[in-house]
UniProtKB/TrEMBL annotation:
InterPro entries: 6-phosphogluconolactonase_DevB (IPR005900), 6PGL (IPR039104), Glc/Gal-6P_isomerase (IPR006148). GO terms for molecular function: 6-phosphogluconolactonase activity. Keywords: Hydrolase. It comes from the Eukaryota. Pfam families: Glucosamine_iso. Belongs to the glucosamine/galactosamine-6-phosphate isomerase family. 6-phosphogluconolactonase subfamily. It comes from Populus tomentosa (Chinese white poplar). It is an enzyme of class 3 (hydrolase). The lineage of its organism: Eukaryota, Viridiplantae, Streptophyta, Embryophyta, Tracheophyta. This is Probable 6-phosphogluconolactonase. Residues 29-257 form the Glucosamine/galactosamine-6-phosphate isomerase domain.
Amino acid sequence: MVFLIWVWMAHSSVHKDRGELRIHENLVELGTDLAEYIAELSEASVKERGVFAIAISGGSLIGLMGKLCEAPYHKTVDWAKWYIFWADERVVGKTHADSNYKLAKDGLLSKVPVVPSHVNSINDSVSAEEAADDYEFHIRQLVKTRTINVSDNSDCPKFDLVLLGMGPDGHVASLFPNHPMLDEKSEWVTFITDSPKPPPERITFTLPVINSASNVAVVVTGESKAEAVHLAIDDVGPDYLSLPGRLVQPTKGKLVWFLDKPAASKLDGPQFSE
Ligand SMILES: O=C1O[C@H](COP(=O)(O)O)[C@@H](O)[C@H](O)[C@H]1O
């Protein structure tokens, strides 16, 4: 029998197997907490390693990170020490509306003093397969120099923080339900040419890379994702063990879920009954 332990700390609770849950009244509160969380991890990582290697996703996450461009973070965060990567990217041009790079550049990176050479975007002029290989090669070079840390128990990169969103179908990064790429164990970055969500061609970190990170945060908002949140977090039995959101289980790192109330509305537990 699996015992669930819920310990309330204001808006935050700890789930024995699924990390910390931070449930927010509204998106403003969530954005404020998310910015503070990222700023704290950045500070700790720069203090410990001299750099902060952060992998971001696309989608609604970027808008929710907007507070980082405002006071005090635009001045207090040591932006020059940030090395930015993408946990997943659509294989389209960098100026294309579907590009996760463009989304982050327009919404965040152009508004803070990051070093352009520290922004590690994909090669958008090759096939999805080549782009994934290129990106993995590039990450391998930065692991050698320890710009990206290395996992203690595998040769995987250990990002200081991986930020993920989750779709209503439970996908994270570009890891979609029932796709063979969920079983990928040897590659760090893989590709997909038949994504169920457009655009079809994408590259993505594999689960071993995501789960080797020091910190993983999954940021999920809106009622349309409440069922996926329930299936990814609650004790729902063997049928949902392979839901991508559920497969996010850092080996040694810390997992935090940032949810708004609608996204958390189907979670088990008396505190969610209102
Ligand atoms: O296609 C993607 O979807 C997920 C979720 O996006 P959201 O808008 O529902 O938050 C995103 O995390 C991923 O990076 C993106 O490529």
